[in-house]
């Protein structure tokens, strides 16, 4: 019986055909250095060639019903057989330094979970200021020592029973095609959070909270140095917070939560 893979790379996808070629090229260094399985869990509402393209590059593909990001990723984790699990999105690319450190870590076995640095891009430009410049996200852990909570609709984070450390290197997150997509995504997640609020709308709280977030981004995180881009991000931060505390809507279905593959 062959040994288990050193590493399972788990990715969830919906209509990911435009993103898959770059993503698969980006994880190829890991697949050359380790015994690696690539597990792609595909939203059952997918209408493009995501499954065909992934299988053509040697991925194990499965189809599942999406009910929230935490539950969906937990479905995927249960399909993984590697000693380590690395979770990526199809719009994320690990750099060469991170690939080397992941490979070195995965060849060993220590009961530790790893946060990885994520830098978001707007178009081709990395956002070097503000909360998107260098986020640390828990993305790698021994497969049997972590899981996702099925109650997390968005902003899911695995629950791990291991010490957490940080692994050098970076993931480039090609999240926003342009400013319009940035505002659309922020508005969507604001609506999701609003749907989960209880009690009456609080416009004053929304305005104050949003204004503070916008000023923090502009002044403390250097958003002003980005010019028009920084002002647009600050405006989006303000609108997102205001919507969260003032809108009240019915429960959102999976189509509103997972509109498209990337977030």
Structure described in brief:
The protein is α/β, with parallel strands linked by helices. It has helices at residues 20-33, 50-56, 69-77, 96-107, 179-196, 203-220, 228-246, 254-257, and strands at residues 7-13, 36-43, 60-64, 84-87, 92-94, 113-122, 125-126, 135-142, 146-147, 159-160, 164-176. The strands form 2 sheets. Strands 1, 2, 3, 4, 5, 6, 7, 8 and 11 form a 9-stranded mixed beta sheet that branches. Strands 9-10 form a two-stranded antiparallel sheet.
Uncertain spans, ≥5 residues at pLDDT below 50?
none
Give the biggest beta sheet.
Answer: 9 strands, mixed
Approximately what portion of the residues adopt beta-strand conformation? 15-25%
The structural domain count equals 2
Helix content: 25-40%
Mean pLDDT: 84
**CATH class descriptor of the largest domain:** Alpha Beta
User: What is the CATH architecture annotation of the largest domain?
Assistant: Alpha-Beta Complex
* Overall number of strands: 11
Figure out the total of helices.
8
SSE order and pairing:
Elements lengths: L6 E7 L6 H14 L2 E8 L6 H7 L3 E5 L4 H9 L6 E4 L4 E3 L1 H12 L5 E10 L2 E2 L8 E8 L3 E2 L11 E2 L3 E13 L2 H18 L6 H18 L7 H19 L7 H4 L6
Parallel strand pairs: 1-2, 1-4, 2-3, 6-11
Antiparallel strand pairs: 4-8, 5-11, 6-7, 6-8, 9-10
Helix pairs in contact: 1-4, 5-7, 6-7
Structure in words:
The protein is α/β, with parallel strands linked by helices. The protein folds into two domains: 7-176, Spore Coat Polysaccharide Biosynthesis Protein SpsA, Chain A (Alpha-Beta Complex), CATH 3.90.550.10; 179-257, no CATH class. 38% of the residues lie in helices and 24% in strands. The protein contains eight helices and eleven strands. Strand 2, helix 2 and strand 3 (60-64) form a beta-alpha-beta unit. The radius of gyration is 19 Å and the shape is globular.
């Amino acid at each position: 019986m062959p040994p288990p893979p050193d590493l399972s790379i788990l990715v969830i996808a919906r209509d990911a055909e435009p993103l898959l070629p770059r993503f698969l090229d980006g994880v190829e260094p890991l697949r050359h250095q380790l015994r690696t399985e690539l597990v792609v869990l595909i939203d059952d509402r997918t209408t493009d060639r995501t499954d065909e393209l992934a299988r053509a590059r040697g991925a194990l593909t499965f189809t599942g019903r999406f009910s929230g990001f935490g539950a969906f990723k937990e479905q995927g984790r249960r399909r993984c057989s590697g000693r380590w699990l690395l979770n990526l999105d199809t719009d994320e690319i690990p750099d060469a330094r991170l690939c080397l450190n992941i490979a070195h870590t995965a060849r060993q076995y220590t009961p530790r979970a790893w946060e990885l640095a994520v830098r978001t891009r707007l178009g081709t430009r990395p956002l070097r200021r503000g909360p998107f410049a260098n986020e640390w996200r828990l993305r790698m852990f021994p497969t049997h020592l972590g899981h996702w909570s099925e109650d997390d609709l968005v902003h899911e984070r695995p629950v791990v029973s291991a010490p957490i450390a940080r692994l050098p290197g970076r993931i480039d997150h090609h999240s926003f095609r342009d400013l319009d997509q940035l505002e659309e995504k922020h508005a969507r997640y604001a609506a999701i959070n609003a749907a989960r609020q209880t009690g009456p709308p609080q416009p004053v709280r929304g305005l104050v909270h949003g204004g503070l977030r916008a000023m923090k981004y502009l002044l403390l995180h250097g958003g002003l140095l980005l010019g028009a881009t920084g002002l647009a991000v600050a405006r989006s931060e303000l609108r997102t917070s205001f919507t969260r505390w003032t809108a009240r809507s019915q429960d959102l279905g999976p189509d509103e939560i997972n509109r498209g593959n990337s977030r």
